[in-house]
Design a protein that fits this description.
The complex is a heterodimer of chains A (about 260) and B (about 300).
Chain A lengths: L3 E12 L2 E12 L3 E5 L6 H8 L7 E6 L2 E2 H4 L3 E4 L13 H6 L3 H4 L7 H13 L15 H13 L5 E4 L8 H16 L3 E5 L6 H4 L2 E6 L1 E7 H4 L2 H8 L3 E3 L5 E4 L13
Parallel strand pairs in A: 3-8, 3-9, 6-7, 7-8
Antiparallel strand pairs in A: 1-2, 1-4, 4-5, 9-10, 11-12
Helix pairs in contact in A: 5-6, 6-7
Chain B lengths: L2 H10 L1 H26 L3 H22 L4 H25 L4 H24 L2 H6 L3 H4 L7 H20 L1 H9 L1 H6 L4 H23 L4 H15 L3 H25 L5 H19 L5 H21 L1
The chains are: A alpha/beta (about 260), B mainly alpha (about 300).
Chain lengths: ~260, ~300
């Protein structure tokens, strides 16, 4: 592989007294389409937020193309979990997508026709251009997700960090997102996706990180996405149909892995 | 008093004109900034800040022995700020959740304020200063220069809001995303909250610490009913606040011995009620009507086949 887009080394983060990430190492090569999988409470969202500087780690660091996030901000786009905002907020689809340009706009400048065009372009890519003037509260879950993706697209970033973009979306949206991910990969972008559906990992992604507070494995899907690592990640609460296929994951709670205490 | 006389007084009677103008200023500023507070789910923060202003007012008086509005407002501002900081500190360092922290700070500050007030009332010059009027407000004590001060401070607060419009909008909608774009969200949060404290402090003399939070929450709640755009909502909220302020001033002047602050609050409540019931799309009446029509269509549909 060529250069490293995202490098996390020895990252430890805690919520109150509970460790959420414990000495986590991770490397995403430039141009990788990488899934982050792990049970609930494994620290997937925290890892993304730590890379973005939204969570202050107790130790360790995360670098984007060799530099800390604040220096590389313009090269990174973030897609938060859909449920993290109030969708009854009085604003339109186009307005939300234009927010993706706010960082580049700088203080006191209002979004204008250039931002509008960029936003409409991005909406077109996610198949939502007809909804531009719609109030965001009138969208379905899948449509809301596509609006968030469009907002990240207008940032024109090189690295995309997406927190559960497939969560609760319809089949149309899932296909649209997959198409978008593949397009981003073909453009040489690096995409990190928090993902829940283990069955689609080999189909959608080429790299995978398996996380359960500690980093279990991180590498090409063909090399590390195997039964042994899955058992280590999900703690045996997983049923295997055969050697390769994975099914019936009981993904309800964090299994009793030995957990470090602070 | 007939309506014509009332409007004549509104223009030419010093007291009524001053009170109406003051109430309009309060309405615009608290309405506009209250919209942000409501959207950020900080309605209760406004209530805590306004109650917490009381000890600030009394301490400012005890220190200076003057009830110059500027001094009193500075005291209220400092106390409101201290309350906000305490709430943030409690939430950040303890396991107490923010609603409990709000309740704690509100009652501790307000209780302390009441105690100080009782103490201050024993001093002869304090009774003349009418500090107890800050509890429920007394619009009649407003002077023209008070209104000028309020309007100047209010205009500064609104101007700042316009200047940081896009940042405030993003902060309110999605703070994490704002941070990922490099916006200094904590500083913006402090700035927006400071503007909220200013909006509250402006209204204390007229509406009083107990009822002031209504001037923040009610116009915003009403405005949300009529629009799906933040720009319109903030503007409308200010307009509703001003409308309630002026009509409250007029009504209380037309009736003997009616306190202005509570009447203003009743006026804004009436606007909220009308908005909840009759606003297009969100109004309860139309919603009921739509449901009823749909029900009937569903029941008669088989007959039309």
């Amino acid at each position: 592989m060529t250069t490293t887009a995202i490098e996390v080394s020895d990252l430890t983060a805690a919520y109150k007294d509970k460790p959420v990430l414990w000495h986590v190492d991770m490397q995403a090569p430039s141009g990788a389409l990488m899934a982050i999988v792990g049970p609930n409470g494994a620290g997937k969202t925290t890892l993304i937020k730590a890379i973005l500087g939204l969570v202050r780690p107790l130790s360790g660091r995360a670098l984007i193309y060799g530099k800390p996030y604040p220096q590389q901000r313009h090269r990174v786009a973030y897609v938060p979990q859909r449920s993290s905002v109030d969708w009854d907020f009085p604003t339109s689809v186009l307005d939300v997508v234009m927010m993706g340009r706010y960082g580049a706009l700088g203080w006191f400048k209002r979004p204008g026709s250039a931002e509008r065009r960029a936003a409409l372009d991005a909406l077109d890519k996610v198949g939502m251009v007809d909804f531009a003037e719609r109030q965001i509260g009138q969208l379905s879950g899948g449509q809301q997700q596509r609006v968030f993706l469009a907002r990240a697209l207008v940032q024109n970033a090189e690295v995309y960090l997406m927190d559960e973009p497939f969560q609760g979306v319809d089949a149309t949206t899932e296909r649209a997102i997959v198409r978008l991910l593949q397009e981003l990969r073909s453009l040489g972008k690096t995409v990190l996706v928090v993902h829940h559906d283990l069955q689609t990992v080999p189909e959608y992604f080429d790299w995978v990180m398996m996380l359960n507070v500690r980093s279990i494995a991180c590498g090409p899907v063909s090399e590390v996405f195997n039964e042994q690592n899955l058992r280590a990640t999900y703690g045996g609460k997983i049923a295997f149909l055969n050697g390769n296929g994975v099914g019936g994951v009981q993904d309800g709670y964090r299994p009793a892995l030995s957990q470090p205490a602070l | 008093m007939d309506i014509g006389q009332l409007f004549h007084n509104l223009l030419f009677d010093y007291t009524l004109r001053t009170v109406a103008l003051g109430a309009a200023v309060i309405g615009i500023v608290s309405g506009a900034l209250g919209a942000f507070a409501v959207l950020r789910r900080q309605s209760l923060l406004g209530d805590a800040i306004s109650h917490a202003a009381l000890p600030g007012i009394v301490i400012a008086f005890l220190l200076t022995r003057s009830r110059e509005p500027t001094i009193v407002l500075l005291g209220a501002l400092a106390a409101g700020w201290a309350a906000t900081l305490s709430i943030t500190a409690i939430v950040r360092t303890t396991r107490i959740k923010d609603d409990s922290a709000l309740g704690l700070v509100l009652s501790v500050f307000f209780g302390f304020g009441l105690m100080l007030l009782t103490f201050a009332q024993k001093l002869s010059d304090a009774r003349q200063a009418g500090l107890d009027k800050f509890l429920f407000g007394q619009a009649a004590t407003l002077l023209q220069r008070d209104v000028v001060t309020m309007a100047t401070v209010g205009a500064l607060a609104l101007g700042t809001t316009l200047l940081f419009w896009k940042e405030f909008k993003l902060l309110t909608f999605d703070a994490d995303y704002a941070a990922s774009l490099g916006h200094p969200v904590r500083a913006l949060d402090v700035l927006l909250t400071t503007l909220l404290v200013i909006a509250i402090v402006i209204g204390l003399q007229t509406v009083g610490v107990v009822l002031m939070s209504a001037m923040l929450v009610a116009p915003a709640a009403a405005a949300r009913q009529w629009t799906n755009r933040l720009e319109t909502m903030v503007g409308l909220s200010g307009l509703f606040g001003a409308l309630a302020g002026v009509s409250g001033a007029l009504i209380s002047s037309a009736m003997e011995k009616t306190p202005t602050g509570p009447v203003i609050v009743l006026c804004i409540s009436a606007i909220v009620l009308v908005s909840l019931l009759f606003a297009p799309a969100r109004g309860l009446v139309w919603k009921r009507l739509r449901n009823f029509r749909n029900q009937r269509r569903i029941h008669t549909a088989p007959l039309q086949l």
